[in-house]
Write a structure and sequence with these properties.
Layout lengths: L8 H15 L11 H7 L4 H6 L7 H8 L4 H7 L4 H7 L2 H12 L12 H12 L20 H11 L13 E4 L5 H9 L5 E4 L6 H5 L2 H4 L6 E4 L2 E4 H10 L8 E3 L2 H4 L31 E3 L11
Parallel strand pairs: 1-2
Antiparallel strand pairs: 3-4, 5-6
Helix pairs in contact: 7-8
């Protein structure tokens, strides 16, 4: 009989780090749990009885249907059953209601308690109300199981375990020693990825760009995915957000919005060959300001 295989110490440490992150997860504010728990506990899912004729359709489709409702109708729907209460409070419903339906000519007022409270805060200000806006207090729904509604909360609550970022198989080369010819021959021509370090340390932005400096332009609006936010709004959101897929700033017109930014960086020597220049005013977007809070990111571009 073969002896049991010994688990390498590093793998055991990595697995323990992941388990520790799972243990730190905060409970879902509305009591929603993964569907697997329903089978372990041998209980029925209150989701089904509370949806009535909508019971056969998927949770994703239920969310899409509710996404067509204005805020007032969504609040009414939430009173119909425990199931619809849970569905109607998904942040993915209240985020677009705040950013696209409510925020028009004024700012929005983000709240760390989520996008429904943010909607309430912003609506309160727009209506010219005095004092503090009412606070939304989530009600925990018992025996409601949904992977679709639980996973965004899980992803927003769980930190990235250090084990997931330890592997590093991409070259890192200092710009102080990497010539343009070496970059072309070693990386660009054969298509080998590389991280070039020490590129921006001489840029004015490296010394100047902290929030104290950037908030001099607090009313300037920048593209944040499909929405436009001021820098002040974006900072407040970044400091407090608990989204599973946070908004990130991704703007190609930043130098038009704040011309001073144009003086704060320079194109590295490796990328000065710019064939798009021949297109003049018809050239596509070629420079971007990208900022994002914890957990934000984009898919890989090829």
């Amino acid at each position: 009989m073969d002896p049991p295989k010994r688990v390498p110490p590093k793998r055991k440490r990595d697995a323990e780090e992941v388990r520790e992150e799972e243990r730190r997860l905060r409970p879902h504010p509305y009591g929603i749990r993964p569907e697997g728990n329903m089978f372990l506990e041998a209980v029925s899912n209150c989701r089904n009885a509370g949806l009535g004729t909508l019971q056969p359709i998927s949770d994703t489709l239920v969310g899409e249907i509710l996404g067509y409702l204005p805020a007032e109708s969504l609040c009414i729907a939430s009173t119909a059953s425990k199931s619809l209460y849970a569905f109607s409070h998904a942040d993915d419903l209240w985020k677009p209601l705040t950013l696209f339906s409510l925020r028009k000519d004024g700012k929005y007022f983000y709240d760390a308690n989520g996008w429904k409270q943010t909607y309430i805060n912003t609506k309160w200000k727009f209506l010219g109300k005095k004092g503090s806006p009412p606070r939304h207090s989530p009600i925990r729904v018992t025996n409601f199981f949904s992977d679709t509604l639980y996973h965004p909360h899980h992803d927003a609550s769980m930190r990235i375990p250090p084990a997931w970022t330890r592997v590093n198989n991409v070259d890192r080369v200092s710009a102080k020693t990497l010539t343009k010819r070496a970059f072309v021959d070693t990386y660009e021509t054969p298509g080998v990825p590389v991280v070039i370090q020490d590129l921006v340390s001489e840029w004015p932005s490296f010394r100047k760009w902290d929030w104290q400096y950037l908030l001099q332009f607090s009313d300037a609006e920048f593209q944040c995915e499909a929405a436009k936010l001021t820098l002040e709004e974006f900072k407040t959101y970044s400091d407090n957000q608990l989204d599973d897929r946070p908004l990130y700033l991704f703007d190609s017109k930043f130098c038009d919005t704040v011309p001073q930014f144009k003086e704060d960086y320079e194109v590295p020597q490796y990328f000065t060959d710019d064939l798009f220049k021949v297109l003049g005013s018809a050239r596509p977007d070629y420079r971007w300001l990208i900022m994002g809070p914890t957990r934000s990111g984009i898919t890989t571009y090829f």
